[in-house]
């Protein structure tokens, strides 16, 4: 695993650090301590087969302004996969100066905390989360809305976004009310198997990187590490029938919002959702599923969704197969709050946790960055128009792709497109194809919009079966003189290895692409 790839995993857990303006505080302000800092560990539930409690370690930042007469809201914070908690108060300067307390913790299996990382399972990480909240509910300098109910927000991205949904849903399940008052998860998942193995096709590069990063601290249970290697080697998301004997669908069943939604639970609290449009691990669709499925309609009216160009992006993104456009930037946070996502989060929490009117707009809407650096705002991301494409065939060559015209520019797209048709395959083993939307002046120069594809995965011969294929969620303005294409590829850098093999052609006849067109 390359150092740059590991850095992507670790730094995905955003620290909530301030922007340049906050970091440039006056010298006198820097001389005074930002907060009283304390480090400690609590005892949480044992691992399987053990009676020994597992320690969960944390750093608590109490701002200078806080005491029992001047209570403040508290923000939970945690790291990305294979990372560790933040101990330096400078990382939270803007929050501490604004009068927020912060508790940053090492998740189970990482940093100084013990046990294995179970990837946000209610039985383990969920119980850790509740114990930390109980600790916060006893702090006399933290605003309390009732017994055991601190005024609580949450920060973090990727794995540091997963704990937020876990804690909120688990409290909702236990008590009928999420103890968190507002969340700000970034680049996190809705359904882990749907993220890591969509259509049963593993994201091989990410599976290897996640497993490799965890090996540095022996964080994963050995059988789960074996299962990730199995998926990468076989090109099939493990279902219990392979050499590891692990059913990853079952293992990850409860590890995310999708399970709670399936049980009829939705969060009724305001959430600021940030998701990467160019994210090739937890793609934009995962965030939009959280927006539409994990929140109640009333909560969405008090929430904001921002898609920025960024997220989990492999170091090879600029030389990807098929060829991709992978821009960076966050025009929507700038448009909404005059700064980056941290500035937007500050304004959001000020309004939701402190009741201060910051003049923030954009509630109840989805704001998506385009590759051109503009922000498109929509109320719905569902398809609104359909375009006949004819036959979409995947080449059988190992490194080729084909682009099929869908619509001529100018046209603007923002949301979650799909493609339907009649599926035929000729392979007797695994049949794989990868699809995405692309833009260019001609098929040869077309580039994937925001660098993403989603797979089609079947086994054996299929003849004329009706098929609906999800395409990556995107936001793009196709200018006049350019064409929007659907790109079909036999291979994908992200899915890689055996998961990308196409023993025979995969063909969609009478294909229709359904687009969320912005009027």
From TrEMBL:
Domain of life of the organism encoding this protein: Bacteria
Xaa-Pro dipeptidyl-peptidase-like domain location: 55-306
UniProt keyword annotation of Ribosomal protein present: no
InterPro entries for the chain: AB_hydrolase_fold, FrsA_esterase, Xaa-Pro-like_dom
Record key words, sorted: Hydrolase
GO MF annotation list: hydrolase activity
The protein's Enzyme Commission number: 3.4.-.-
Class in the EC hierarchy, top level: hydrolase
Homology family: Belongs to the AB hydrolase superfamily.
PANTHER family on file: DIENELACTONE HYDROLASE DOMAIN-CONTAINING PROTEIN, DIENELACTONE HYDROLASE DOMAIN-CONTAINING PROTEIN-RELATED
Name used for this protein in its record: Alpha/beta hydrolase family protein
């Amino acid at each position: 695993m390359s150092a740059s790839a590991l850095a992507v995993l670790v730094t995905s857990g955003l620290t909530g650090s301030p922007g340049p303006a906050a970091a440039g505080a006056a010298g006198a302000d820097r001389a005074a301590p930002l907060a009283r800092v304390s480090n400690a560990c609590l005892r949480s539930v044992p691992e399987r087969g053990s009676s020994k409690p597992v320690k969960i370690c944390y750093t608590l930042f109490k701002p200078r302004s806080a005491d029992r007469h001047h209570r403040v809201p508290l923000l939970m914070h945690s790291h990305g996969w294979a990372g560790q908690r933040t101990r330096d108060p400078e990382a939270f300067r803007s929050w501490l100066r604004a009068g927020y307390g912060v508790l940053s913790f090492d998740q189970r299996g990482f940093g100084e905390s013990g046990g294995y990382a179970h990837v946000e399972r209610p039985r383990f990480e969920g119980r850790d989360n509740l114990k930390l909240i109980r600790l916060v509910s006893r702090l006399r300098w933290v605003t309390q809305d009732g017994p055991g109910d601190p005024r609580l927000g949450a920060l973090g991205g990727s794995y540091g976004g997963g704990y937020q949904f876990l804690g909120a849903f688990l409290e909702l399940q236990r008590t009928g009310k999420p103890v968190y008052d507002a969340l700000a998860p970034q680049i996190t998942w809705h359904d882990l198997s749907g993220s890591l193995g969509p259509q049963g096709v593993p994201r091989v590069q990410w599976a290897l990187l996640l497993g490799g990063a965890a090996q540095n601290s022996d964080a994963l249970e050995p059988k789960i590490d074996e299962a990730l290697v199995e998926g990468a080697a076989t090109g099939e998301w493990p279902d219990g029938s392979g050499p590891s004997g692990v059913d990853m669908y079952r293992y990850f069943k409860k590890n995310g919002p999708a399970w709670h939604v399936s049980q009829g639970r939705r969060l009724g609290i305001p959430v600021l959702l940030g998701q990467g449009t160019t994210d090739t691990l937890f793609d934009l669709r995962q965030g939009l599923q959280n927006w539409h499925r994990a929140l109640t309609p009333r909560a969405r009216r008090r929430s904001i969704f921002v898609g920025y160009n960024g997220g989990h992006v492999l170091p090879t993104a600029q030389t990807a197969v098929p060829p991709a456009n992978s821009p960076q930037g966050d025009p929507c946070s700038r448009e909404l709050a005059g700064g980056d996502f941290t500035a937007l989060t500050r304004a959001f929490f000020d309004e939701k946790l402190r009741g201060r009117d910051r003049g923030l707009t954009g509630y109840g809407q989805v704001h998506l960055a385009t590759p051109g650096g503009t922000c498109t705002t929509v109320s719905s991301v569902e398809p609104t128009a359909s375009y006949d494409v004819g036959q979409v065939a995947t080449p059988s060559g190992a490194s080729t792709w084909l682009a099929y015209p869908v619509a001529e520019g100018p046209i603007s797209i923002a949301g979650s497109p799909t493609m339907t048709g009649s599926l035929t395959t000729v392979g007797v083993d695994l049949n794989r194809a990868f699809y995405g939307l692309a833009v260019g002046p001609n098929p040869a120069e077309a580039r994937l919009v925001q660098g993403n594809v989603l797979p089609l995965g079947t086994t054996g011969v299929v003849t004329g079966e009706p098929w609906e294929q999800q395409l990556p969620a995107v936001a793009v303005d196709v200018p006049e003189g350019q064409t929007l294409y659907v790109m079909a590829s036999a291979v994908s850098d992200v899915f890689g290895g055996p998961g990308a093999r196409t023993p025979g052609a995969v063909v969609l006849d009478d294909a229709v692409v359904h687009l969320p067109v912005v009027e």
